[in-house]
UniProtKB/TrEMBL annotation:
GO terms for cellular component: membrane. Keywords: Membrane, Transmembrane, Transmembrane helix. It is found in: Membrane. Residues 11-147, 180-315 form the EamA domain. Its main location: membrane. Belongs to the drug/metabolite transporter (DMT) superfamily. Plant drug/metabolite exporter (P-DME) (TC 2.A.7.4) family. GO terms for molecular function: transmembrane transporter activity. Pfam families: EamA (PF00892). It is a multi-pass membrane protein. The keyword Transmembrane applies. The gene is LOC106778915. The chain crosses the membrane at residues 7-24, 36-57, 69-91, 97-117, 129-149, 175-195, 207-229, 241-265, 272-291, 297-315. It comes from Vigna radiata var. radiata. InterPro entries: EamA_dom, EmrE-like, WAT1-related. This is WAT1-related protein.
Amino acid sequence: MGKLTLPFVGMIMAEFAQVGLIILSKKAMAQGMTNFIFIFYSNTIAALLLLPISLLIHRFERPPITFSILCEFFLLALLGYLAQAFGYAGIYYGSATLSTSMLNLVPGFTFVLAVLFRMEQLDWRKFSSLAKSLGTIVSIAGAFIVTLYKGPALLLGVSSANSSPKLLLSVDSNWILAGLFLAADCVMTSAYIILQASILKKYPAELIVVFFYCFFVAIQSAVTCLVVERDISAWSLEPKLRLLAVLYSGVMGSAFQVGITSWCLHQTGPVFVSMFKPLGILISVVLGVLFLGDAFYLGSLVGAIVIVVGFYSVLWGKAEDIKDGGVRIIRYQKVGDELLLEENSHEDTQRP
C-alpha cells in the first residue's frame, strides 16, 4: 500500500476538485454568468498558466508546428468547446450528482467511436469485447434512468426541503434537458479523445497540445460571447463568487487537476485512476445537498449504480485486452475543463 498512498490521496483530491468545479460553476451561472463567458475566462486563465509551463517542459522536444497541425488543434478545441458548453449547460439545469453520474458515460461512448474509426477491434468471440459492448449498453441505459426517472427524494437540501417528492416518471423538463446536455457533453468528449489520440501520434508534446486547446477554446468562446451576449454587464466578475469560480476553474480545475491526474496515471495506470470515479458521485451528493440545496432522488441512485456497473464492465474488458498482450491502450479522463489522454503500449503498463 506504501507505493499507492500518494496516488490514493492525489485521486481523492482530484475528485474533490472536480466536484468543487461543478458546484462553483453552478453557483456562478445561477448569479447570471453565462456558460460561454465562464468558459472564456477559465480557458484564458488556463492558457496563460500553461504557456510558460509547456514551453519549459517541452523546451528540448518541440516538434515543428505546421499549418495542418494548427488546423487539427483548432478542430480539437472546437470539440472541447462544445463539450464544455453542453457540460456547463447540463450543470446549470441539473444537479452536481446528475453531472458526475453522467460523466461515467465517457468510456462507453469512446469505445463506440473507437470501433467506428477502427481504433478498437471488436471480436465477438472474446469475453473482453462482449464486456465492453454490454458495458456500453448498460451505461447508456443507466443514463436514461437517471435522466427520465426521479422517484422519491432520499435526501433533501435546504432549498428543496418543502418540495413534494415525485413518485412517477419525471416530467421535469429542466432535469431532462440537463440529461440531454450532459449526454451531448459525453459524446463530444469522446470525439475529442479520438481526435486527440490521432494528434498525439503526430505531435507528442502533450502540454503544448493542451495549451493550444485552451487558447483556441478561449478564442472560440470569445467570438460566441460577442455574437450571443449583448449585455456588457454579463462580463462582470462581480459578485466575488463569479471571480472565485473563474479562478478556481482556471487554476484548480485545469492546472492542478490535470497535473495531479497525469502524475497518478503515470504512477499507477488508468484502471487505478478510473476506480475513483464513483467517489465523485458520493462527494457530489454530500456537497450538493449541503451547499446547493439539491435533493438526491431514488432515480439518481439507481441510475448512477447502473452507469457505474457498465463503466467497470468496459474497464474490465480493456484490462483483459491488455493481458492478451500487444494491445495499445487509451487512457482517458475528463479533468476539470480539460480532457486528458495518454496512449501507451502494453509493455509500458507492466513497469513496477
